[in-house]
Specification:
Layout (H helix, E strand, L loop, with lengths): L3 H18 L11 E2 L11 H10 L1 E2 L4 E3 L16 H6 L7 E6 L7 E4 L6 E4 L4 E2 L15 E2 L2 E5 L2 H18 L11 H25 L1 H4 L8 H9 L2
Antiparallel strand pairs: 1-2, 3-4, 4-5, 5-6, 6-9, 7-8
Helix pairs in contact: 1-4, 1-5, 2-4, 4-5, 5-7
Length: about 230
């Protein structure tokens, strides 16, 4: 016979799988929908423009939208090394969609004119020298490029955002173990919680097989964001 906690987590996982597989239109919550009509003038595929102007993006605490006006892209990516140059061409500028994180220069979201790929931009690559000395021994070889892969298209980026938004709302219904809960119950809770987070990661990878599944393709920034901010 299952414990109450086991029944609760089973229900969470079942609903999570349902949300991650149903049409994205059913997941849109109008009250939290941020439409981007400015994208109508961008030089990207029609399907990407419609995704921003009709589906929009969910309002998330970590994301700040600042869509630029006009058809001329404004962001200048830092092509610091081979990883960056593999994703953007010399002299290429990107459309500014917004940024993740506390500062306007952290995890900037750029859209590539023409093909509509979505990239993550940093002012410069991040290495172990950029983190506190006490942490450097644990991050030897750290290298986060100034340009990273997000999604193969704006439409995929929008869909991933809405599915993650909906998934978080389901996960958080499970609550936290009581302060007096035995250690075994706490361990079980977090095992199931992180298992649910991996379901979201797997869904993000399936949505974008070009960037998320191929061995020779870069890992999407979505994976980092989902794992770090879903619990």
């Amino acid at each position: 016979m299952k414990s109450d906690q086991g029944v609760e987590w089973t229900a969470v996982q079942e609903e999570l799988r349902r949300v991650l597989s149903q049409p994205v239109e059913r997941l849109i919550v109008v009250e939290d929908q941020l439409l981007i009509p400015e994208a109508e003038g961008w030089g990207i595929p029609d399907s990407d423009r419609r995704a921003l102007s009709e589906r929009g993006l969910p309002r998330l605490p970590l994301f700040t939208a600042r869509p630029q006006f006009g058809a001329d892209p404004a962001l200048v990516p830092n092509r610091a090394g081979p990883q960056e140059r593999r994703l953007v061409n010399d002299g290429q500028r990107l459309y500014d969609l917004g940024f993740w994180g506390p500062r306007a220069d952290s995890f900037v979201v750029g859209v590539v004119p023409g093909d509509g790929r979505v990239l993550c931009l940093l002012p410069a690559p991040v290495t172990a020298e950029d983190i506190p000395k006490v942490l450097r021994p644990y991050h030897a070889g750290l290298h986060k490029p100034a340009v990273s892969f997000f999604s193969s298209s704006v439409a995929q980026y929008v869909e991933t955002a809405w599915r993650w938004y909906s998934a978080i709302r389901i996960i958080r219904r499970a609550g936290e173990p009581a302060p007096t809960a035995p250690e075994e119950a706490v361990v079980h809770h977090y095992d199931r919680l992180y298992g649910c987070v991996e379901l979201i990661v797997d869904a993000a990878r399936r949505l974008d097989p070009v960037g998320g599944v191929r061995v020779d393709a870069p890992e999407s920034v979505w994976v980092e964001l989902i794992r770090a901010n879903s619990v």
